[in-house]
Design a protein that fits this description.
Distance between the termini: 9 Å
Largest sheet: none
Number of helices: 9
Shape: globular
Radius of gyration: 16 Å
Strand content: under 5%
Oligomer: single chain
Length: 186
């Protein structure tokens, strides 16, 4: 049950309504995450601008979705795991590749280094080790791409925490359960 109620685009007013209408035009729907963020148009606008800025970066879409599903799993945000699993499948990631990312590893050397670095940033609260850097650099990531990985971890951690606090109802197909893991409501 949501603790922060989502707004419907039809009932929203002012800047919130404009932002929700823009989302609907852009992606054809308005996910509960954004409807809930619209309670504060400043929060929704910040999220959309951060997301749009990173979408124009160097990291390919598949890498961005692997980071999102891995960070979501690390932060136990079932909303984001479900959303990014669905998005990942829609852009060509397999169910096995997505499950691997949730378990903290990739399907090849580069995706493995990407996911391991992102998870290290989350789990060590930004205290990346020299070994973390060596592994991600050896896998071919530039300093700019490493900066983007950190930014994607921050963006996804924000949405994870927001959903957990708000109790956002999942409006995507539920991601499969991990063996031995309990699911949170959000």
């Amino acid at each position: 049950m949501p603790r922060i109620q989502p707004l419907t685009p039809e009932l929203a007013q002012g800047h919130a309504k404009d932002l929700l209408n823009d989302v609907k035009k852009k992606i054809g729907m308005v996910p509960n995450l954004m409807r809930t963020m619209a309670q504060s148009p400043a929060v929704l606008q910040a999220y959309l601008q951060f997301n749009d800025a990173l979408a124009s970066g160097e990291l390919p879409r598949k890498h961005r979705e692997l980071i999102a599903v891995s960070v979501g799993q690390s932060n136990e945000c079932n909303y984001c795991v479900s959303a990014h699993s669905a998005i990942g499948k829609s852009i060509g990631l397999t169910a096995e590749e997505l499950m691997d990312a949730r378990l903290g590893h990739g399907f090849d050397r580069q995706s493995d280094a990407l996911i391991r670095f992102a998870r290290s940033v989350v789990e060590n609260r930004g205290q990346a080790t020299e070994e973390d850097f060596a592994e991600v650099r050896d896998a071919g990531f530039s300093d700019g791409e490493i900066a983007e990985i950190v930014a994607h971890v921050a963006l996804n951690t924000f949405t994870n925490y927001f959903n957990l606090v708000a109790g956002t109802e999942i409006d995507f197909p539920l991601a499969p359960e991990l063996e031995g893991k309990k699911r949170n409501a959000a």
